[in-house]
Design goal:
The structure holds two protein chains of two kinds. In chain A, the strands form two sheets. In chain A, strands 3-5-6-7-8-9-10 form a seven-stranded mixed beta sheet, with helices on both faces. In chain A, strands 1-2 form a two-stranded antiparallel ribbon. Chain A has two domains: about 1-55, no CATH class; about 55-280, 2-enoyl-CoA Hydratase, Chain A, domain 1. Residues about 1-10 of chain A have low confidence and may be disordered. By secondary structure, chain A is an alpha/beta fold. The N and C termini of chain A lie far apart (about 40 Å). In chain A, about 35% of the residues lie in helices and about 15% in strands. The mean pLDDT of chain B is about 95. Chain B has helices spanning about 5-25, 30-50, 55-60, 70-75, 120-125, 130-145, 165-170, 170-185, 200-205, 225-230, 240-245, 250-255, 275-290, 295-310, and strands spanning about 80, 95-100, 105-110, 150-155, 190-200, 210-215, 220, 260, 315. The N and C termini of chain B lie far apart (about 50 Å). In chain B, strands 1, 2, 3, 4, 5, 6, 7 and 8 form an eight-stranded mixed beta sheet that branches. Chain B contains 14 helices and nine strands. Chain B is α/β, with parallel strands linked by helices. The chains are: A alpha/beta, B alpha/beta. Chains A and B meet through strand 4, helix 6, helix 7, helix 9 and helix 10 of A and helix 6, helix 7, helix 8, helix 9 and helix 10 of B. Strand 4 (about 80) of chain A pairs antiparallel with strand 9 of chain B, so a sheet runs across the interface.
Chain lengths: ~300, ~325
């Protein structure tokens, strides 16, 4: 399937408050069943007919994972600059202003503190509907700050990723966010605080090749597209058909790239269990076998 | 084959060499005339290369005849000894690594290798690594740490290879891991972008204490062709994308992405590879000497800080 066409499927977020006749009903992308939008929302954006996991808005994701009334927002104070004065068919600031207005946030990520079944966590949730969840300086900085602050406050980090990759309009500065976010995770590592990444549809490019795949545990949502190079790019390069299920969560599970594929309805309880298991180690530190330079 | 904007230079060079052979054959003295033309040639080269558009620089960065990673390994290092394989999947010819001396100091050196001709290009996969290449890099970083060897990486790749096996073997995973492993090096690390710094595939071996770049090399989040295909929906708009992406050495120095630009000989590294490589050697020796006074903890801290502060944003 063409990646572009794939990226354009945004219907589930076309405003949950949309009360117009067109907004009340929608067609499931996977099974084509006519579904009542309210049913889809009530079902955590999983199709009641075919169990297809639709892309989930950030707020719903936070509501899914955070215990009631425990989410405390950290992000939102940083907004993109235009360091390259980038103009394609439109100037970058114009594109950003439009999507900021539409998504009601300064950039493609939301971070904050929360409790998850009582466990203290920091949440990083990417917004694919904001410029394809692309990572520029703001996303990189917010992820970095969240990781650093989580370490300071003795919280585990949960990152829910969804991204088309690095943001082209900030050029090599976007590329450098891959190194920046990677380095930020060291603070958690040094304090032996768990970092779990949850890869959702789609997680691609520079985000996949940095913090998204550096979790102590890496899990994915069913059927999520997870890749470095998108299917279209690969098809153009090798001029062959791609194998069935290629780059989907279940395929990656078979290839050994993720710890598990977890249906959305079970995500919260599973994450809580992981955290309890990881943080329930021996109270006293056991002497470590020396591994060359690995912290 | 010369680049299109080099045509006048090539014509003048041909004219000078024709005059030389004519003078030799006929036994006439054309010294003054030849000297005049040579001065004109120098001026022409300088003017042409001082005013290159960004898209033209992209072409210089990819020019045939430009010294490749292996050329550097063989000419500016002593006793380069290649170490093969990642101990799991195989040996990736697009990323060459091994031990060598740099002016007497033993170092671990890694170079991304494009081909010097079609046959080598196919063997080297045009400098595009598979996961095996990055796994090899990680293994060599481990070795460098264990034996306290400074690390030098030479960057020249269109990007990590986008293929079925590459994806199945976790291309994204190994790039992320290589970034992390390099950031943890307990020895000094220097990277030089010698040609094309193509996105994550380049950054995977670019997390150094000092990042240098040759005057006509480029470093970008995406190739101008791919960027144009996405944003302009037409890859022939690559010249526009190259302008917009600010991917030249000077641009990157201004943005803080690189720390130092190494001048190339007039007319570009491909017209005088020997001189270009000597300049890189000089810069490497200098930079390494400057880093030597720090401790392991300081190398790690400085490297982390360097990347921690990259990015530009405003407060809401």
């Amino acid at each position: 399937m063409a990646l572009e066409r794939f990226f354009r499927r945004k219907r589930p977020t076309k405003g949950d408050e949309d009360q117009s006749p067109a907004g009340l009903w929608m067609k499931c992308d996977a099974c084509s069943a006519q579904i009542y939008r309210k049913d889809l929302v009530a079902n955590q954006y999983v199709c009641p007919e075919c169990r297809h996991h639709h892309r989930m808005p950030v707020d719903a994701r936070i509501q899914l994972l955070a215990d009631d009334d425990t989410f405390e927002l950290w992000s939102g104070k940083l907004t993109p600059r235009d360091p390259l004065q980038f103009v394609d068919t439109k100037p970058y600031p114009e594109r950003i202003a439009k999507v900021q207005d539409q998504q009601q946030r300064p950039d493609a990520v939301v971070t904050g503190a929360a409790r998850l079944e009582g466990e203290d966590v920091a949440l990083v949730v990417m917004d694919f509907f904001f410029a394809g969840g692309s990572m520029g300086s703001v996303v990189g900085e917010e992820v970095t700050r969240a990781a650093e602050r989580a370490a300071e406050e003795d919280r585990s980090l949960i990152a829910v990723t969804a991204s088309g990759g690095a943001r082209m309009q900030e050029g090599a500065l976007s590329l450098m966010q891959m190194a920046k976010t990677t380095v930020a995770l060291e603070a958690l590592s040094e304090r032996r605080l768990p970092y779990i990444s949850v890869l959702t549809d789609p997680t691609t490019g520079g985000v996949t090749a940095s913090f998204a795949t550096l979790g102590d545990l890496i899990v994915a949502e069913p059927n999520a597209l997870i890749c470095f190079a998108g299917p279209r790019v690969i098809q153009q390069t090798i001029k062959q058909d791609l194998p069935e299920g290629f780059q989907r969560a279940e395929f990656l599970l078979k290839k050994g790239m993720v710890d598990d594929v977890i249906p959305r309805q079970q995500l919260k309880e599973r994450l809580a269990l992981y955290l309890r298991l990881l943080r329930g180690g021996l109270a006293k530190e056991v002497p470590e076998v020396e591994r060359a330079a690995v912290i | 084959m010369p680049l299109s904007f080099e045509q006048p230079i090539v014509e003048l060079e041909t004219k000078i060499s024709d005059m030389r052979s004519y003078a030799a054959e006929q036994g006439v003295d054309l010294t003054d005339e030849i000297q005049l033309l040579e001065q004109r040639l120098e001026r022409l080269k300088k003017e042409t290369f001082a005013n290159l558009s960004r898209w033209q620089r992209v072409q210089v960065a990819r020019a045939p005849g430009r010294p490749t990673g292996m050329d550097y390994l063989q000419s500016i290092f002593e006793d380069f000894t290649e170490l093969h394989g990642d101990r799991a999947l195989g040996d990736d010819p697009a990323l060459v690594g091994g031990l060598a001396f740099l002016q007497g100091q033993s170092v671990m050196v890694l170079a991304q290798q494009k081909g010097r001709d079609t046959k080598e290009n196919i063997h080297r996969n045009f400098g595009m690594s598979h996961p095996s290449g990055y796994r090899k890099a990680i293994r060599l970083f481990d070795l460098a740490d264990k034996f306290h060897l400074p690390v030098i990486t030479l960057i020249d790749t269109p990007g990590a290879y986008p293929g079925i096996a590459a994806e199945e073997q976790g291309q994204a995973w190994v790039i992320a891991e290589s970034i992390r492993r390099m950031s943890r090096l307990r020895v000094p690390a220097i990277s030089v972008v010698i040609g094309e710094g193509g996105s994550g595939g380049a950054l995977a071996v670019g997390v150094a204490n000092r990042v240098l770049i040759l005057e006509n090399a480029i470093y970008s989040v995406i190739s101008p062709e791919s960027c144009a295909a996405i944003l302009w929906r037409d890859s022939t708009e690559a010249p526009k994308a190259a302008e917009a992406l600010r991917l030249t050495a000077d641009d990157l120095l201004q943005l803080g992405i690189v720390d130092r630009v190494i001048d190339e000989p007039v007319g570009g590294a491909h017209r005088n590879p020997g001189s270009a490589m000597e300049r890189v050697k000089g810069a490497l020796v200098e930079e390494l000497a400057a880093l030597m006074s720090l401790t392991s903890d300081e190398w790690i801290r400085q490297r982390r800080e360097r990347f921690r502060h990259l990015g530009e944003f405003d407060l809401v």
